[in-house]
Amino acid sequence: MKISVAVTVNGKAVSAEVQARTLLVDFLRDSLHLAGTHVGCDTAQCGACTVLLDGKPVKSCNVLAVQAQGAQLTTIEGLAANGALHPMQAAFRQHHGLQCGFCTPGMVLSAIGLARENPNASDSEIRAALDGNFCRCTGYHNIVKAVQQGLAEMA
Amino acid sequence: MTDITERDASVRERAATARATRPSGPIGARIERKEDSRFLTGMGQYTADITLPRQTHAYFLRSPHAHARIRGIGKQLAEHMPGVLAIYTGADLPESVGGLPCGWLITGTDGQPMKEPKHPLLAQGKVRYVGDPVAIVVAESGDQAKEAAMMLQVDYEPLPAVVDVREARGAAAVVHDAAPDNTCYVWALGDAAAVDAAFARAAHVTTLEFANNRLIPNAIEPRACNASWSAADDSYTLYVANQNPHVERLLMAAFVLGIPEHKLRVIAPDVGGGFGSKICLYAEETVCVWASKRLGRPVRWTAERTESFLADAHGRDHWTHAELALDRDGRFLGLRVKTTAAMGAYLSTFSTCIPTILHATLLAGQYTTPAIHCEVTAVFTNTAPVDAYRGAGRPEATYVVERLVSTAAREMGLAQDEIRRRNFIRSFPYSTPVALTYDTGDYEACLDGAMKLADVAGFPARRAEAQARGRLRGLGFSSYIEACGLAPSNIAGALGARAGLFEVAEVRVHPTGKVTLFTGSHSHGQGHETTFAQVVAERLGISIEDVDVVHGDTGRIPFGMGTYGSRSIAVGGAAIMKACDKIIAKATRIAAHLMGAPAGEVRFLAGTFAVPGTTKNLPFAQVALAAYVPHNYPLAELEPGLDEIAFYDPTNFTYPAGTHICEVEVDPDTGATQVVNFSACDDFGNIVNPMIVEGQVHGGLAQGIGQALIEACVYDRESGQLLTASYMDYAMPRAADLPSFRLDNRVTPCTHNALGVKGCGEAGAIGAPPAVINAICDATGAKEIGMPATPERVWRALRAQRS
Amino acid sequence: MHGFGYYDPTSVSKAVAILDDKPEARYLAGGQSLVATMKLGLSAPSDLVDLRQIPDLRGIRLERDGSVVTVGAMVRHAEVAESRDVADRIPALADLAGMIGDRQVRNRGTIGGSLANNDPAADYPAAVLGLGATINTNKRRIAADDWFHDLYETALGAGELITSVAFPVAEKAAYLKFRNAASRFAIVGVFVAKTRQGARVAVTGASPQGAFRVRAMEEALTREWSAAALRPIDVPAAGLQADLHASADYRAHLISVLAQRAVAATL
Questions:
Q1: From A128, A139, C84, C86, which residue has the greatest number of CB atoms within 10 Å?
Q2: Which residues pair with B265 in a beta bridge?
């Protein structure tokens, strides 16, 4: 069953024909060629595929593309503007909050989503808020520092 | 490994002063990573991001049984499914295709070589673990390949299986007919008679028996490959998530597929973490390469996470009995270790050297224990193969030593630091009774540093405060040693290595003085594009912006052994220094010619060639230009160009060491353990980029704490099924499971490489597990708590204490 | 994942009509369990009827002078966790919603989906049982005590659709959860409530049959609302879940510890 999905991705209106079973992450990666959103698991736990759906972090591997009909989506490709990193991206770089880079897009978007929910999050609140994102490289220490700074700069 | 008498005094001197000479240079600076821009903007290119023209997609059908005979495979239904292009089983592989090789031959105590049964790419006759690949289906889409695979009809005759390392010998199940008692080898190191004598005169003996729990590496990027074949020149290109592309190419071309090595280009692009699991040559990418020619189309495969759990090489899985003999003052007299190590169903690439060469040799730890004997029995089990996982052998050794030392201290009423101080090695070089020679170190400095960081002095007050809240606090020490940069090649070869252990660097100076570094090391998170640029920039006196680092491509890099065992800076970095030295030597002669001075009088400092005592000087870029525009040039004695390759084979391992102190709080009602503080004071020798080194330590600590508290790979003893086959059942450390870490370091520069560096990638994973378990034992009073120390295990230990 | 038909009706009656027509169809709420099981091939509905366009299934309302908090079936866990009305009236319910899964799951998962799925280790069943909530469907009102039948089985009939869940406000209530370190589901979760009809204690995660009440604890707490009142009560391990993550003994012990702590947290 082919269905036309129309969404706004990183500020641009796009539409494409997809199967009903097409996952949002596959729609982004395969139909829209936005390969910065990664797939790290098949049980919707690692969070590498996190994108913002109407401003809220969701796991795009566990959402059907059709469920996003009409939504505003933000992926990692949509953060930097005019060659300048988003404050959260810049904070990750400054605090060495990434190593292999694979979990990074999901981690950064999850952190940006936090700015709406809890802009003054403490160290332990940030750790709790990252419960849906795995990182195997950093031990989270520098991610927490980066998120703290990123939130402060987004405020 | 003991033969490190060759010590170049000038190398040692340079290493010791590497930082002092140019404190303001790139080496030692916290420089933000060059690679981050692409990773942070979604521009990284991982294997699964690559789509080739006429792309096809592969799916592997895997065994649902731990052990079974394959009576037959029916393809008819699957072959007619939509989009299916080909289905191959083990029977379809030609005779010329070999099995996957093991890279290290271990010779047993009986003088016989290890049992090395064939490791077919696709099961032939039998499957030997749940997840063993049985068939590949190639189709126009990934979904089609998977749907067709589900229609394959495999007739299995289930056989008895053994999955527990303790039960392998003597089990009714026989994994390989060639190893009737499931034994791959029995190997030993050390002087058994001397150890017996030490125990005979001991005032105290501490004995422990424990598992080193099996782990699943879980790089967040699943394994992936994309293989293509070109009819134009009968050549192959393989993109693969891999840590050592040249080794991958050599093994695949020469030992499995029989492809001329120069006709196979292996590219490991951005790789999302490895931790050892992407060192090995695996069946999947090898079959895809083979199939790409059969089909004349590129074949792509990306593991689902479930497949990563089932079929990535696992780590650890030892069962160990260990005894430490002490005199009445707590001085170590002897150490006796018997370990049974699981190999899994087949020998993975480096599996056999891990419980032997990388484990038994580390059992001296930081101590002067005069007599050590270790016997290792490697067994086959009906499980995924076991290979390197962060630390590989060295965490197992450190766990043995540090659990024994802490337990002995408690049994003898000695303070944890005191028992260590009484036994530290203090004079270097030091030859251990287990075949290593430590070149340098200052173990007490790290112990003192860690105790300060951990505020050990304030611990009694914190413990009392916790007690008032009904919580138990404990402090655990771990003084680890690590051997990095396995070397030198000739001694490793004598011990059974089937590969070299050098590293390669090519420094290509372009006519404008910009530099491209081609390194045989591979970065999959380690930040080499920055660290290595710092090394080149420092040595050539140029900006790090003017240095680009190329890695992970056999088509562009002369050769390389890749990245594992914390070897990149110690071996790869030293190779870069050597290549830079060659560049400087040649450039000095060019500069001498241009300045009309004898080469012996030209000095190179901070990017400028000069003749001391004169005003003559030339910037590096100008000399580079002359090398490529050789108009005024000594053509008769010097080739044009400025491009040098260096192969560097180290004379010894490097020996990072340090002390980690973990503080835990245990909830006695639930057994839940929280790591409230973790302090690590490490000695990695000189440090090129402290920011990156700290990141490496953080990551290693997270994996070590994960092993100690929550991570465990569990197979069902009856069915042989993997019970922890997804993140629903295999616990990965999340941010809230971990504390912020307190780090410090001390520096004793490595004496035998030009950078004075030792490596830092595995230290955390090595030091942390015993620190955590020692802390829980301290908190609860238990003598032994198995890893992972789950709440229920801790609760049961507490209950046993009370009754 | 197998292919399926997809519908996104705008009213409850239209949604139900599709299900009446297609017995192998399933409702799709947040999809956090359903899509995951479909990906793993454990579920293969002929059609999905997406409920996201139905306004009647949304929103949190105070009813009966604020003595009942009614949560629409499509209300996401994060909305409950962040709702001021819920925090004011039944803070334990907001706390519980904030402990479900992880942040991304809470942004998608819904109360209706959770209750229809009835995972034996899910959190919401503890609140529904512990507060004596009423599940409203397109056909009827079902009391919590009649809702939970067995593992993944509820009173919900074929094609029947949950529209909202009505939680009576309790005098005191608390939920404590001991998490599975891997999945973040409950190894044991205990919801205690002091209601007008007496004390209720509901446990999730501990039984292979799903959430259940602990009558002995309820009787003790009805007599005296204190942690001490629970201390003498021995929770039998027989019949409790035993798996890779915890034995039945340990789960029984945790029920006791968490129940006492939950009561203490309300004081």
A1: A139
A2: B237
Coil, helix or strand at residue A122: coil
Q: Phi and psi dihedrals of B677, rounded to 5? A: -145, 145
The predicted structure's pLDDT at residue B22: 43
Radius of gyration of chain B (CA): 27
What interface predicted TM-score (ipTM) does this complex get? 0.98
Is residue B175's pLDDT more than 90? yes
Closest CA relative to residue B59, chosen from B145, B128, B141: B145
Q: Per-residue pLDDT averaged across B710-735, rounded?
A: 98
pLDDT of B4 strictly over 80: no
Q: CA distances (Å), B114 to each of B129, B252, C106, in order?
A: 21, 22, 53
Q: What is the pLDDT of residue B803?
A: 80
Tell me the per-residue pLDDT of A120-147, one tens digit each, with 9 for 90 and over. 999 999 999 999 999 999 999 999 999 9
pLDDT of residue B21: 42
The per-residue b/e assignment along A41-69, b for 16 or more CB within 10 angstroms, e otherwise, is bbbbbbbbbbbbbeebbbbbbbbbbbbbb
Q: In this structure, are residues B293 and B286 in contact, taking their beta carbons and an 8 Å threshold?
A: no
Q: Cβ of C182 and B728 within 8 Å?
A: yes
* Nearest neighbour of B698 by CB, restricted to A36, A39, A138: A138
pLDDT digits (tens, 9 = 90+) for C127-183: 999 999 999 999 999 999 999 998 889 999 999 999 999 999 999 999 999 999 999
**Mean pLDDT of the B498-509 span:** 95
Closest CA to C80 of C89, C93, C92, C67: C93
Cβ count near B76 (within 10 Å): 9
- What is the Cα–Cα distance from B637 to B599, expressed in whole angstroms? 13
Distance from CA of C158 to the nearest CA of B (A): 29
Burial readout B20-40 (b: 16 or more C-beta within 10 A, e: otherwise): eebeebbbbbebbbbbbbebb
- Is the pLDDT at B8 greater than 70, yes or no? no
Interchain proximity A136–B271, CB inside 8 Å: no
DSSP string across B548-567? EEEESBTTTSS----S-TT-
Amino acid (one-letter) located at A87: P
CB B787 within 8 A of CB B710: no
Dihedral class, residue A141 (left if φ above 0, else alpha if ψ from -120 to 50, else beta): alpha
Residue tagged 């879980």 (tokens): B218
Tens digit of each residue's pLDDT (9 = 90 or more) over B63-119: 999 999 999 999 999 999 999 999 999 999 999 999 999 999 999 999 999 999 999
Strand B673-683 and strand B741-745: pairing?
Answer: parallel
CA distance B774 to B781: 10
* Test mutation, B729, B732, B799, B803, chain C, max C CBs within 10 A: B729
For B685-724, give one letter per residue: b (16+ CB within 10 A) or e. bbbbbebbbbbbbbbbbbbbbbbbbbbbbbbeeeebbbbb
CA distances from B66 to B82, B166, B344, B362 (A): 31, 17, 11, 34
Closest CA to B364 of B412, B408, B424, B417: B424
Task: Give CA–CA dist B476/B787, Å, rounded.
Answer: 15
Q: Which helix (H) or strand (E) holds B445?
A: helix B443-453
Partner residue opposite A67 with nearest CB, options C31, C103, C105: C31
Cross-chain Cβ contact C32/A132 below 8 Å:
no
Chain C residues with CB inside 8 Å of B790's CB? 181, 245
Residues in chain C closer than 8 A to A56 (CB atoms): 78, 107
Kindly state the average pLDDT of the residues B746-767: 97
Q: What CA–CA distance (Å, rounded) separates B609 from B619? A: 6
- pLDDT tops 90 at residue B9: no
pTM: 0.97
CA distance B282 to C126: 46
